[in-house]
Amino acid sequence: MTDPSPQRWRLILGEPAEPACPLGGVDARRDTALRWLYGREEDLESRGVRRGGSGESELTTVDWLDEVHRLFPKETIERLERDAVERYQIHEIVTDPDVLGRVEPNPALLRAVLRTKHLMNPDVLAMARKIIASVVRELVDRLALEVRRSFSGTRQRRRSNFRQARNFDFRATIKANLAHYQPEQRRVRITEPRFVSRTRRQVDQWQLMLLVDQSGSMVDSVIHSAVTASCLWSVPGLRTHLVAFDTAVVDLTSDVTDPVELLMKVQLGGGTDIAKAVRYGAGLIDNPRRSIVAVISDFYEGGDEHQLVRTVRELVEQGTQVLCLAALDGEANPNYDRDLGQRLADTGASVGAMTPGELAQFVAERLGR
């Protein structure tokens, strides 16, 4: 059995390493597939790499997808497809039905569909809807578990005889069993485990206004917000509103129960008028002291910053809890205008970043008060 390391290095280094390690067979096909995609880099000539030609032997997008699915493991395929769509803007992957039918549904493809669905004809759009449904179903299943856990009840310090792992009281157990400490083994022998009771939250009616920036850079946050709103919709004692905005404001609350339909209606791109969206959200409030306004944006305001700060201050002063949540990318890294964020924090708003699960936990804690 030969050592595969030289071939792997040849695939990584590309054509300049060809004299030292020529490729053949499957490795040569892998190199062709990689060169078809990454041969689009602008600085290849300065690095001494010859660009591929555009003759009859050039792979089509369909041929390339077929090849990578035959030649690479699943993790590599997902990375190649993501780079094709996001890095090199190869839109045939999401606008050509032959290509679209071969791509494995994944979050990168969902983002690409949302950005390019306006380019699709009805047949392709129907296929795209299936991709959105597949990815959204997985996201909803994942978040629904966190939401159920957040709203399942609060642990009380009252002792319980009902033994369940999630109600195990670690501190009380250690304290009750310290007499059984074994110095030679440095262990505490547990003879009397302790558990606490869990009572279901009794809640008054609350409102949650999710105001989501749908400008072009906000695609991940739009997806997360749609899924979050859908999962929170059926929570007892909570009325959820979902509003998307750019320079216009669109109330999507009627579609919250169907996140696929909701995402199909989202129009990514355009400017940003956060002040207008916050004013709209403020107009939905019935009881200020039982309301949460969560603004999800990068806070690069294209509207009136002074009016935005003024409206947020008024909301805080009337008792509404205002969350200014920074946009999160696919790796949950925050990206926002920190100067405006600081001005909003100075009004009393909570400014920061939350994953959808953390937002659900925040809402659950407020409802349980």
UniProtKB/TrEMBL annotation:
InterPro entries: LolB, Uncharacterised_CoxE, VWF_A, vWFA_dom_sf
One Pfam family linked to the record: VWA_CoxE
Signal sequence extent: none
Sequence ranges assigned to domain VWFA in this UniProt record: 205-364
Descriptive protein name: Mg-chelatase subunit ChlD
Organism: Actinokineospora alba
Origin organism lineage: Bacteria, Bacillati, Actinomycetota, Actinomycetes, Pseudonocardiales
